[in-house]
Amino acid sequence: MSEFGKITPGMVKELRKIVGENGVIYEEREALDNYSRDESGGDYYAHMPDVVVKPENAEQISKILKFANQERIPITPRGAGSGLAGAAVPIYGGIVISMEKMNAILEIDKTNLVAVVEPGVVTNDLCRRVAEDGLYYAGYPMSVETSFVGGNVATNAGGSKVIKYGNTAHHVLGIEVVLPNGEIVQFGGKRRKDSSGYDITRLFVGSEGTLGIFTKIFLNLIPLPGKTVDLLVPFKDIYTAISNVGPLITESRMLPSAVEFIDDTSVVLGSKYNNITLPFQEKAGSYLIIQYEGPDKEELESVYAKAGKALIDGGAMDVFIADNRTNSEKIWRMRRNWLEGIKAFEPHTPTGDVVLPTSEIPKIMDYISKISREYKVQIPVAGHAADGNLHPAPMKPKEMELNEWKVLSEEILSKIAMEAAKLGGAVSGEHGIGFLKKDLLKETKTKQYEIMKELKAFFDPNGIMNPGKLF
């Protein structure tokens, strides 16, 4: 974009006045390189920022944005860099605003059951802190140990517990945000109801840093759910596994907190990486991992007895109950380390993110198998079966050059995403759009896309906020 201004040494001097000498990285290539990428593709999509700024409060961010807006310098907000769609990659250079120093849990309000946090709080740190007070933050994604809360809100992240608790948006009661002109505004707060006009809070959730920068987030808390039990259930094929999700919920008379899916290829690779062998591993075509939460052991026993019977009647090869921490950890390690297990064998493995009605999962799996054969590429798949969110991960053929693989893998994932949209789904369920899926967004959300562009122009007329993302 030719209209963007360029960073000069004089501008860097002004930035240092705002955040201090230790809050700015400039002309240090190795240090800057750490902020040039996220987890979407490593060197494939990396782009060096001109300068990295690490503010400590909303007032500093306000001054930075006023300055950048005046000079038309592109701004890329950055959380932990754990995103998978390129949203934190500064593709136009400019200023990366890293939220790493804004990592305080400001308040745990036990009366109103609200946590107030800065955006740089690691999600797992929040979960552990509120657990000390017998409380629970249910909005965490699978990347709970690495992601920042601000990044989760920016992408409307999901995870394994969406079927019971909803994605991140369901847990955000309010935000304080710095707009591109430097104005600090709060939308929402500790209240749980507000029918006073448009829900601006929800507009910002999932906006991927294109409208402003979060500086304070109000999150809903609930009491700790008590006991948990995990079920590992092998099936002969994906069709049988998915056909069990609806009846499972009906027959057990309790909503599971998680129903995860993992295919046989993923299990083979994951078992080698995690040094774990799952039951029926040589025979099963897919597995469901099911978790229930309950107030006590007796109620959980009743629930998993009903669930187990329903699953066996539905064609499960067996039902394995993990009712202690050691056995549960073995099961969840396979799912949690799914992508790491694949990348241990092929490091140049991107992962897609599509969502569609759960009933359509067998059709998309058929399509993925077709694409796998057509392109002669192995594509392991895992995902959140109960909410229809799947993650295909095409593996680079050993003999293929990286440049060729970059183009081919993008084509494969785009085709799968478009097929999911045709089946009543969307091109992203929880990873966001970033710059990797912006063409798919435009193609599948035609009228919504135009409305979103108009909203973007209203909030950010100079286009400085995370340019090249979404649009």
How many individual domains? 4
Name given to the CATH architecture of the largest domain: 2-Layer Sandwich
Q: For the residues shown, what is the average pLDDT? A: 95
Give the number of helices: 17
**Terminus-to-terminus distance:** 13 Å
What overall form do the CA principal axes indicate? globular
- How much helix, percentage-wise, in residues? 25-40%
User: Stretches where pLDDT falls below 50 for ≥5 residues?
Assistant: none
Q: How many beta-strand elements?
A: 18
CATH class of the largest domain equals Alpha Beta
Percent of residues in β-strands: 15-25%
Which secondary-structure class do the elements indicate? Answer: alpha+beta
Biggest sheet layout: 7 strands, antiparallel
Q: What strand line-up does the widest sheet have? A: 15-12-14-13-17-18-16
Radius of gyration: 23 Å
Examine the coordinates and then state which fold CATH places here, giving the name of the CATH topology of the largest domain.
Answer: Uridine Diphospho-n-acetylenolpyruvylglucosamine Reductase, domain 3
Account of the 3D structure:
- This protein has a 7-stranded antiparallel sheet. Strands 5-6-10-8-9 form a 5-stranded antiparallel sheet.
- The protein contains 17 helices and 18 strands.
- The protein starts with 8 loop residues before the first helix and ends in a 12-residue tail after the last helix.
- The protein is an alpha+beta fold.
